[in-house]
Amino acid sequence: MLNLLAISGSLRAASTNSALVAALARNAPEGCRVTVYDGLGLLPIFNPDDEGERTPREAFDLIDAVTSADGVIISCPEYAHGVPGGLKNALDWLVSRDAAINKPAMLVHASPRSAYARAALAEIMRTMSFALFEETALEIALLGKKPPEMESILAEPVTVLAMRDTLSAFADFIRRR
Ligand SMILES: Cc1cc2nc3c(=O)[nH]c(=O)nc-3n(C[C@H](O)[C@H](O)[C@H](O)COP(=O)(O)O)c2cc1C
Question: Whose CB among 45, 92, 128, 132 lies 3.0–4.6 Å from 100's, allowing a Cys bridge?
Answer without folding.
Answer: 128
